[in-house]
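User: Sequence recovery, please. Input:
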């Protein structure tokens, strides 16, 4: 049986579409869930947290087992957990049901990441970062699809259960695409788990893990709460989400020349600067200006995630599939920790505004803007961190070229 790289790549992309649709549609139905089950923003934050928590659990398990199980078995685990999570969500009857079902969805999403990132890196060794960016086109691409689906279904008065059910279709599609296929064996990545573990303890990897917690929260923490943060800002939150993620998809598709020109370290440094400006502008904008601020934010966060993963593959290859998986897992774990905190910011700021006699709509606007100010701290820290990385780029290139362990 021959290896069909393009079919496996397409299957990976469709699986990532499911991952991102769960993210977008959950963002779109938060208000419906809150109203039906009488949940506060903090409680909704705990529901969100389960998706982001299930993800790193899966990437840790998947990363440790990748050398034994391989990508094929992990993809089937992802399919089963996606189906289970979606069905349990549809039939959830309250807070605890939503927690359990959302965890399964998060676990499925993390398993997709654990299986596909190293598989793609191994299939396309000559242009890893570019192909990983092209693969990760479909995270924002799927959010565009999911956010528009959620908006139109909500406008047509479809309930949240129907919006969850629609995601079963692409889930079945990626199962069909992987059925009966031969998957690649790792030939270009380090497959010794003990070697992987030793190389996780290098200063550069630890530094990048810490940076990943900030970059992921910048991107996903902001987007997951877009409906609650921007609901009263005079712009359609789901259209803002579609605009942001649509621009991200285009940017990632054409990532090759950008990465080649700026180097991964330059891309990350420039991204942190633009992301900070975008969030700060969004925290002050209302009406049509929200869309302009959203464009700036999209440019800022566009390359964060795939470039971080690609950086590990290029500069720290001895960490293997485990290194890539843990990088993504660290980002999602950090985002999960911040979910109820972000919800708490909204609750606190809204309550403070209402206590001052401000009307509810304006209180929601103030709460959203204050929350965005808090979120801007994350990329602001990265301006310093990635600046250090950028000015050490020549040392990193020398160490990569001589196959030495990188260190800052």
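Assistant: Recovered sequence (408 residues):
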């Amino acid at each position: 049986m021959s290896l069909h790289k393009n079919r496996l790549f397409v299957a990976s992309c469709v699986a990532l579409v499911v991952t991102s649709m769960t993210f977008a549609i959950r963002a779109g139905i938060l208000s419906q869930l809150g109203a039906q089950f009488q949940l506060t923003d903090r409680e909704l934050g705990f529901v969100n947290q389960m998706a982001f928590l299930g993800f790193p659990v899966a990437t840790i398990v998947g990363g440790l087992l990748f050398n034994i199980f391989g990508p094929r078995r992990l993809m089937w685990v992802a399919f089963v957990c996606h189906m289970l999570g979606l069905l349990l969500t549809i039939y959830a009857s309250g807070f605890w049901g939503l927690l359990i079902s959302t965890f399964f969805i998060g676990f499925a999403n993390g398993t997709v990441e654990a299986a596909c990132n190293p598989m793609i890196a191994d299939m396309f060794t000559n242009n890893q970062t570019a192909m990983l960016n092209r693969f990760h086109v479909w995270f924002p691409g799927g959010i565009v699809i999911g956010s528009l689906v959620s908006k139109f279904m909500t406008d047509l008065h479809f309930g949240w259960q129907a919006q969850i059910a629609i995601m079963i279709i692409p889930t079945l599609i990626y199962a069909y695409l992987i059925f009966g296929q031969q998957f690649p064996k790792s030939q270009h990545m380090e497959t010794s788990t003990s070697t992987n573990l030793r190389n996780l303890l290098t200063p550069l990897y630890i530094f990048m893990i810490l940076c990943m917690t900030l970059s992921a929260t910048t991107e996903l923490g902001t987007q997951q709460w877009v409906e609650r943060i921007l609901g009263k800002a005079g712009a359609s939150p789901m259209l803002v989400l579609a605009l942001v993620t649509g621009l991200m998809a285009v940017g990632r598709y054409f990532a090759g020349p950008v990465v080649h020109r700026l180097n991964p370290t330059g891309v990350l440094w420039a991204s942190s600067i633009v992301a900070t400006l975008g969030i700060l502008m969004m925290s002050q904008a209302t009406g049509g200006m929200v869309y302009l601020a959203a464009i700036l934010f999209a440019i800022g966060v566009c390359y964060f995630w795939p470039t971080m993963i690609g950086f590990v593959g290029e500069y720290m290859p001895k960490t293997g599939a485990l290194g890539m998986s843990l990088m993504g897992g660290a980002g999602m774990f950090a985002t999960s920790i911040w979910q109820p905190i972000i919800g708490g910011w909204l609750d606190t700021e809204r309550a403070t505004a209402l206590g001052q006699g401000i009307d509810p709509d304006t209180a929601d606007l103030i709460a959203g803007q204050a929350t965005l100010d808090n979120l801007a701290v994350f990329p602001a820290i990265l301006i310093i961190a990635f600046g250090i990385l950028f000015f050490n780029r020549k040392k990193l290139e020398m160490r990569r070229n001589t196959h030495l362990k990188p260190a800052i």
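The first helix runs from residue 5 to 37.
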